[in-house]
Amino acid sequence: MTGKFLPGVIAMAAIVVASNVLVQFLILDGLLTWGAFTYPFAFLVTDLMNRFYGVAAARRVVLAGFVTGVICSLIGSQIMLQGDGYTYAAVPLRVAVGSGIAFLAAQMTDVTVFDRFRGGQWWRAPLISTLIGSALDTALFFTIAFSA
Fold it and tell me: Could you report the per-residue pLDDT of 72-91, keeping only the tens digit for each?
């Protein structure tokens, strides 16, 4: 990976780490977490890398973010919390798996859709790819993480 991709990799890693930490802090009576405000920036980073350096660079940045997320999940799954007489993992396995699969699928879909709509008006590709990627991320994550 060349040095020109490094800012994208660093930005993606920072967003993934921040989102993994901030997801623990609930707002609006538990309807949202602060991570909901940082994670969308992952799509911005992916789209910028795609726009300036192409599909291959964007995919590399997504993979770097995925690896960062796996590391965060491994660390989070080792943290044990106690409450109500039980000990449980801070990050349940299905939440970690759902998060990883949703991230990878959504970001790779974003890269592909962005590339297909690259021509034309500048705003079409990022708008369409982010809407599709975000919807896919949400559907996959909630299906995997919370349907038991």
Answer: 877 776 666 666 666 666 56
pLDDT tens column, 12-29: 999 998 888 888 788 898
Locate 130 and state its tokens.
């982010």
pTM as predicted: 0.87
Nearest to 117 by CA among 104, 105, 99, 130: 130
| Continuous segment of H or E residues that includes residue 80 | strand 80-83
Range of the domain at 133: 3-146
Domain count, the chain: 1
Q: Which residues neighbour 127 within 8 Å (Cβ) at sequence distance 6 or greater?
A: none
Distance CA 111, CA 27 (A): 31
Q: Which helix (H) or strand (E) holds 64?
A: helix 55-78
